[in-house]
């Protein structure tokens, strides 16, 4: 097993001439795709991996400087694709990884056939002329709460983000993967996500983008999906799904997976 494969717990499943790569968001790991993978392996070669900093990775490998921007994650993704001789993949990225895929596609557009972006946002904080969903004071309060009592913070944060109560299987699953992260790493990744502003990158993304968005997502308003659609440099399409929460592939797989499969199977057709 190579160093990259081991560090990111890379798994290659299924077979097929087309490769689908699945990238997870903050607080989760590749297990977030457990409902989706069975629908892919008969037709596609599927690559799963864990972002550095996920609870399933070695915390000693987490470089706080490298992962203070999304470029660090993008370079990791490119290294994984190169290691496994991936050419023109369909990249399905959730949240953090949707924007990681966008940045990686700027550096290496040849590696991507298209991006499928779930709960994607180029900036989470509001400005005078942009509605990202959060005020800076709210982010500061979340960071303070996280720093003071990580376990207590998870019990409040997970239901809000997933869209359910603590008895929900999806909330319990998200709580589990969040709790597996080392608290200082979780705080660092959280700060990175909530301080980045990738709006100036969007025009340079020329790979086709399929934007899939929950109709009710605490972290990403529907307006953000439309903003992406208007500002990306290549073809794009938006589909708003009648789901509640930031992790619809985990909390509402019966609604979300058919939509994702359709976007995987069909390219954007020029009107």
From TrEMBL:
<feature type="domain" description="AB hydrolase-1">
    <location>
        <begin position="19"/>
        <end position="252"/>
    </location>
</feature>
<dbReference type="Pfam" id="PF00561">
    <property type="entry name" value="Abhydrolase_1"/>
</dbReference>
<comment type="similarity">
    <text>Belongs to the AB hydrolase superfamily.</text>
</comment>
<dbReference type="InterPro" id="IPR000073">
    <property type="entry name" value="AB_hydrolase_1"/>
</dbReference>
<protein>
    <recommendedName>
        <fullName>AB hydrolase-1 domain-containing protein</fullName>
    </recommendedName>
</protein>
<dbReference type="InterPro" id="IPR029058">
    <property type="entry name" value="AB_hydrolase_fold"/>
</dbReference>
